[in-house]
Amino acid sequence: MGNDLLPGTLDMLVLGSLTRGPRHGYGIAQHLKKISEDVLDVGESSLYPALQRLLLNGWVTAEWGASENNRRARYYKLTASGRKQLAAENREFDRMILAIQKVMSCA
Amino acid sequence: MGNDLLPGTLDMLVLGSLTRGPRHGYGIAQHLKKISEDVLDVGESSLYPALQRLLLNGWVTAEWGASENNRRARYYKLTASGRKQLAAENREFDRMILAIQKVMSCA
DNA sequence: CGTTTCCCATCGTTTATCGATGGAAGCACG
DNA sequence: CGTGCTTCCATCGATAAACGATGGGAAACG
User: Fold this and answer.
1) pLDDT tens-digit profile of B19-64?
2) Helix, strand, coil share of chain A (percent; to 5)
3) How far apart are CA B9 and CA A90, in angstroms?
4) If pLDDT is split at 50, 70 and 90, which confidence band does B3 have?
5) CB contact (8 A) between residue B37 and residue A92
């Protein structure tokens, strides 16, 4: 039931989910859903392509490991460059939101 | 230089530009650019398809007229249904923004 | 055992936006 | 009068992002 998220924000959301430490894909999806109180519902078919992008750009690294309960899982970790990217996307996002709100509050 | 706007928000922005009265396409683009202080830069090739969508959905109507300086121009006007749509999109947008900000402020 | 939960991932489709392009009509200027 | 700038319309093809459907394997759970 949770609606589509705003396109263009997925990479930022994923990077943001990794600031507190590495997570695996499934964990990222759950984290987003939980923190947003079910507003954001990222399907895995959106998530994994996003993670591929982030890997390609060097914004995260991946490492196989074991999840809390003995299952194999691929942990994604924010790199220094990823942190910069996150900051940049955040700034840009705020800029946009502000601009949009100016328009919306009429003037 | 003004960057891409957030995808998915264009319809809302266009509808929002019409709350104060009818405008023609070119005027909408200028209005957005001006109010947002050059942050939003909607190309006409993004704008006209959007206007077509809005027409198809009955959220705006179009009427030919003359612009301030003797040029032929097509004026787009918000309908009642368009006003409802705008309100709905606004609510949804706020919901998303709030959710995203929750994620971004860590937690 | 069978089912659920966890966790990975790909493929094909859809949809939005953009860049490039084209045209016509008024205006300003030399 | 011609040239070019601004205004205003619009379409087309490419690109990229996100989604739905789908598939599979391995641990845990009853």
Assistant:
1) 999 999 999 999 999 999 999 999 999 999 999 999 999 999 999 9
2) 55, 15, 30
3) 17
4) low
5) no
Token pair belonging to A91: 């700034």
Question: Cα angle at B19 between B13 and B24, to 5 degrees?
Answer: 75
Q: Radius of gyration over alpha carbons of chain B, in Å?
A: 15
Contact status of A18 with chain B (Cβ, < 8 Å): no
For residue B20, give the nearest of B78, B60, B59 by alpha carbon.
B78
| B40 → closest Cβ in A36, A40, A99 | A99
Q: Residue B9 is which amino acid? A: T
Q: Specify the pTM.
A: 0.92
CATH code of the region A2-106:
1.10.10.10
Amino acid letter, B16: G
